[in-house]
Each structure stands twice: as C-alpha cells, then as structure tokens.
Acetyl-CoA carboxylase carboxyltransferase subunit
Amino acid sequence: MTSTQAGAWDETLDDLDTRRKRSYAMGGAERVAKHRAKGKLDARARIRALLDPGSFQEFGTLVGGEIAADAIVTGTGEINGTPVVVGAEDFTTFAGTIAPGSNAKRYRVAELALRNRIPMVMLLEGAGFRPTGDHYGRTPTDLLMQAQCSGKVPIVTAVLGPSAGHGALVAPVSDFRVMSEQGSIFTAGPPVVRASTGEDIAKEDLGGPTVAIPSGVIHNHYADDLTCLSEVRRYLSYFPPSAWSYPMPRPDDPDDPEVTGPRDSSELLEVVSRDNRRVYDMHDVLDIVLDTDDWMEIQPTFGQAVICAMGHLGGHPVAVVANQPQVLAGSIDAAAANKAAHFIQVADSFHLPLIFLADNPGMLPGSKSEREGVLLAGGKMFAAQTTATTLKLHLTLRKAYGFGSMVMSLLGFDNQVAAFAYPGATMGAMGAGALSSASGADADMAKQLRDMELAASYYSAEMMGFDELIDPRETRNQLLFALRRGLYSRQATPEPVQRTAIMP
C-alpha cells in the first residue's frame, strides 16, 4: 500500500478514534471523579482489576452513539488464564440504565458465554430500564439467555453499588453473588418505593448488605470493589470453563507432597471431642483435611449450621458440605438446607467432587423451624444431593440422625464413591436421649439405649452400612485415596447435567 493510499484512511480513522474516546470517557471526567471520590472504581477500572492484565477485548464500544457504550462496558478477557465474558454497568453514564442498545449488549454477553462455553461475570451498579419511551417490541432479554447459561457455564455477579429493577435480576439467577460495602440491591429503588407505598427508606436499609446477606440474595460480602473482584477471581479458580469440561488441579503445587500428598491427621483427635455432647469448630477440621487452610467459604454468615466451602484435596478442586456443631449443635435449619441445596447443584453442574462431613442430630425441630419451612428446604437439599451425578464422598464424624443423615448423603445405594465413619459414631432415627424421653424409658432402659447407640457404628459396619470405620488420624488419607480412585473412573468427556435453572 502506498503512502497516498494509507493517507486516505486518516479522516476515517480519526473519526473512529474520536468516537472510541467518547465511549472510553464514560460519563465524563467530572462524573467519573465524583464516582471514585466515593471509594468506588469506575466500570472500566473494575474490568481491569478483574481480568488478567492486557486480556480485555471490548465489543459494543459504539453502541449508544452519544451515550457512552450505552451505559454498559462489555467484552471478553481472561481470569487466571481462562477466557471469560464480562459486562460492567457504568453508573456515571445515565446511572447505568438499560436501553435497547445496552439490552442487546447484555444479551450478547450471555450468548457468547454459552456459545464459547466460558464463564460469565456481571458487575452491577445501575438503575434498571431507562425511561426513554422507546418501544422494545418483541426483542430478546438478556435474562432469557442467562437462564439458558445456568448450569452450563459458571455465572458470577458482583453488586458494587445500587442495583435496581431489571439489572438487579441478573444476581439471583447467578451461581455466586458478592456485594461490596457500598452495594445495594432491590426490586425498585427508594424513589419508586416512596411513590408506590409511601415508605421513606434509604437504599442501604432497603437492600444493602444488612438486608441482602440475611435474605440470602447475596452470598458473600466484602469491604470494597477490589476485594470483591479478587474474590470473584478466586471463586472461578475452582471451576472449569463450562459443564463440558472438568475442573483442573491447581497449577502452583500439584507435585508438592507437603501440600497435596498423604499425611497424618492426628490433630483431629484434639479437635473432635469423643463426647458427642461437646461442641467443636468444623472449620478446624477443614483446615486439617484439605490441602491448605486457604479454602473459600460460601455464605459464611447465612445458614451457619452448615458450612459450604470450596477447597483442594490432593491438588484437585472439591466442594465441601459440613455440619457445624457450634451452631444449633449441628441441627440443619431451613436457611442451612436452602444454602446447601444451591451449593450442591452448582458443584454438581460443574463436576466438582462433593465431600460431606456429617455431625448433626437431625433437622432442626420446633414451631419456629416449621414456620420457616424446614421440611421443604430439607427436601430441596435431599433432592440436590441424591440426584447429583458428580463424585460423592461421605464421612460421619460423631452422629447423623434421621433425615439430617439423608440430606448429608448417608444413605445406602446413593452412589457414593466412599462412605466412612469414626468408631463410636451414632446414627438412627433419633439419639438415645431423645428416644428415652419420647418413650418414657426408665433408668435401666435409658442406659441400654445409650449402650446400643454407642455400638451403632459397629452394627452398621457389620451390615456394610459404611465402606469402613476409620481412625480419625486416617481421615485425610482415606478421603484423598477414595477421591483419586473416583477421578480415575470418570468418563473422558463430561456433559451438562440435565436440570432446570439453578435458583437460590
């Protein structure tokens, strides 16, 4: 090409450059500065913090014309070397609202995630649909495509400011949802609430962390944008790009025997009391059993009677569902069961092995628990775990009674790779104390019931109720070896699990 021919492009390329710069400027220097003065990153800075350096490739830059990127920045990039597609609402431009152009971009984000079989990340801070008067007609909505993505590609949402209306609906249809201290999420914001109901309420009280975390709408809460985005990266590190592939071992220490290899678990003798009536912290058990104590808990302050965590065993990503004796003595309430049901479904969808650590006296009884729908929630958890097709491993540490044992995968013919228990573990319809009280047993009968309870693990072992009764010092190695055998048996290429959209 001659210099004359190249020069003919100058005017056209200058025009393109001008239009791009207008989009890159978002709502303008003044609005961006005001936004950042609140301690928040702007949409483009959030994307830079989320993605691997230099990996962002934008699409839809010129959508919206004079309205920069039509108030949402979209594109593809990489997180920990894995391709992802991302959308970040730009609150500095028309409050991050949605118009026909930005609606098309949002749909495209989900469409590319499913087409390319890669994770989808949405960064929310927007006021819902823009009151432009434009008619959307029979146009597709992004939520339609996002529902198609559910269970096929990991979907993660970060709420980093006020999120209302249609945009807010992205979060509850996601697998993992985080919020910053300045985040809030609601069906409609304070002005609409005031006009509709007369209630005068601040956005923090309507849908901030103190509301969204206890309600279960948001899973994890962090101080600021950077921490939220860092935790999104961490969460996705446990997952494969899609349901058409398996999670991979962590790349940093796969051959380090001090981290991923067999080792004695003697510390558990100090952690887990032999007396079933004494509490202990299940977090300490996870610290000992998993490769390192740097595992990630999901919804740590919601449904605390069950711990749901992502970690590594033998370098391989695993999902752990564990009873927490420090909360309700490990009894499973409605919140804990709902949390676990969603967690199990997500883990199963992306072929993460499930490890169940049981130590509970059953589902939480009582009028309050019944009013909260404990049976319905327990049914959801049971359905999730018993239909899971991923590898399942079970260990009863001290006790597992009634339906509480079944939701924790202590059930014969339930397709476990391995089922273990500690000697002295007690199980059955209910504990000896409860049975004695319910039956009006005298002292001699109560003692007999207690003796039978203590011998239950051996009776169960004699009838092949478990694969093996194990010494607590063997815990990590028994789980590790069983996991490795199970991984060896998997089919060469996985397929998505057939189920409806994953919901909280």
